[in-house]
């Protein structure tokens, strides 16, 4: 987000909109897919790898610096995300869940880093690919451990209901497990990052316009208000960014557990 102001005339301000999420190729005449979000995603991967390398490459008995940060993140994911869902299988899946949590968190935090200012998850393709990857793992585990029939039987287990009720409830449960769960996994993350980025852009553009582009005695207070609201929303957005990373990883753990245990 290099600028959030659209100027159609010297006296007119236009609120930022969908153009904030449209990017031209970084290299003129180069690959159309190589845009700013792709570059930021690559940078995010490098950051995640670098943080884990600095934290765990040469661990000490008494953790310090990056190791302390890495162990705190590991313990948080293990105790708050993996263990409540996976139980005895926690350690086996910690690598994947820690990677998902750190990746999504860094993606989100890119929205508040100066000169970058774009949360990757606000581009729907990125959380969708991550959610599809988890979905494939879930289905694979369910079929591998329980077989197709066993997995489906565990998913639509409706004890105590009469036979005729299966025809009503079974399709709904199957749709929730194999369709709705996939979309809600990434839509929640995408929608929050999209809306948050748009709100920050809106109020920052108000502040910039009335304090710099069209400074006046009457407009200055509105500009100051825009800046103040931008600061408040940015602080709240950082909390939401962490929360959404937590929820995305939590759902990933739940879906993996459902595949392992063959249950809804």
Describe the protein's architecture and organization.
The chain is mostly helical and 264 residues long. The protein has one domain (23-261). It has helices at residues 36-56, 66-86, 90-109, 125-155, 163-213, 219-261; strands at residues 6-9, 12-14. Strands 1-2 form a two-stranded antiparallel ribbon. Helix 3 (90-109) runs antiparallel to helix 6. Key component of the proton channel; it plays a direct role in the translocation of protons across the membrane.
Outline the secondary-structure elements.
Blueprint: E1 6-9, E2 12-14, H1 36-56, H2 66-86, H3 90-109, H4 125-155, H5 163-213, H6 219-261
Antiparallel strand pairs: 1-2
Estimate percent helicity.
Answer: over 70%
Mean pLDDT: 87
The oligomeric state of the chains shown is: single chain
Mind summarizing the main beta sheet?
A: 2 strands, antiparallel
């Amino acid at each position: 987000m290099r600028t959030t102001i659209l100027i159609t005339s010297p006296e007119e301000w236009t609120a930022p909109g969908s153009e904030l999420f449209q990017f031209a190729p970084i290299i003129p005449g180069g690959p159309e897919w190589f845009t700013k979000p792709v570059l930021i995603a690559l940078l995010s991967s490098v950051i995640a790898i670098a943080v884990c390398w600095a934290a765990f490459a040469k661990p000490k008995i008494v953790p310090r610096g990056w190791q302390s940060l890495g162990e705190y993140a590991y313990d948080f994911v293990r105790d708050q995300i993996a263990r409540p869902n996976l139980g005895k299988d926690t350690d086996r899946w910690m690598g994947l869940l820690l990677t998902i949590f750190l990746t999504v968190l860094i993606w989100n935090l890119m929205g508040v880093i100066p000169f970058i200012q774009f949360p990757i998850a606000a581009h729907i393709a990125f959380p969708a690919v991550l959610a599809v990857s988890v979905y494939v793992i879930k289905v694979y585990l369910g079929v591998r451990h329980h077989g197709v029939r066993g997995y489906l039987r565990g998913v639509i287990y409706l004890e105590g209901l009469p036979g005729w009720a299966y025809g009503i409830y079974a399709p709904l449960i199957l749709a929730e497990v194999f369709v709705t769960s996939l979309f809600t996994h990434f839509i929640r993350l995408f929608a929050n990052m999209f809306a948050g980025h748009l709100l920050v852009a809106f109020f920052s553009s108000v502040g910039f316009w009335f304090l710099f582009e069209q400074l006046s005695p009457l407009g200055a207070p509105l500009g100051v208000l825009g800046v103040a609201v931008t600061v408040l929303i940015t602080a709240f957005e950082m909390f939401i960014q962490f929360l959404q990373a937590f929820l995305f990883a939590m759902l990933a753990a739940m879906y993996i557990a459902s595949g392992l245990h063959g249950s809804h």
